[in-house]
Amino acid sequence: MRSRIPVILLACGSFNPTTNMHMRLFELARDHLHQTGRYQVTEGIMSPVSDNYGKKGLVSARHRVAMAKLALETSDWIRVDPWESEQDTWTETVKVLRHHYNEALRVFQSKKEFMRNTHPTESSAEDSLSCQQPVLPELKLLCGADFLQTFKTPNLWKEEDIKEIVEKFGLVCISRAGSDPSQLIQESELLSKFQHNIFLVREWIQNEISATQIRSALCRGLSVKYLIPDSVIAYIAQHNVYTAQSERSNEGRLLQPLRLQNRTIN
Hints:
The chain is α/β, with parallel strands linked by helices. The chain is 46% helix and 15% strand.
């Protein structure tokens, strides 16, 4: 029997703050991929965006990474990676995928070398080694259904980036109430061409937790218990992370990818 393909799930976003729904996306995606019988999810990675993204209400990456770490303390397979948030400029999603894929390949090569060194006498027994050699990992971008909609936003994405994402890496897309990702795929010539590499996962237990609504509730002094982890609630209170002032940050500012595209066009 062929080995299952190891898969790393990568989610890029603001995580402002990390909610229970953010973590549920990983669990749903893992269940779905395991049920295909082809994949074994080995790791989940949360990658908070850089402060330079320019999204309204975006608080410091220092806080967003810290809150994500607290939220993931109970997970034995999902971690937060600060690499993207630590870059001096906003980093395109495709570049974040390349970075983490290269890191995965580096680990893969290390494991392969380890197997070669620990089984030197079996080099001629190909059938035996084929069962022991690690399988080349895959990296897939995890997203919500609304993410596909952003592909249609003028100047937000480069077409060559979308192509590389869906062709080389692949998407695992979690559907939400009122969204129809399959229709979005069929309406796009590019997405429909690579739909075999886009996994649509239905969330049967609807959970429409919005980070924007959570921040709004926090600013009004309302309870957000059971919407985000208690450790994150405590961190927000201790550091006074979300305020009326923080919600006005980047107000009226274009997102960095739109600013870059406008600069190129002009």
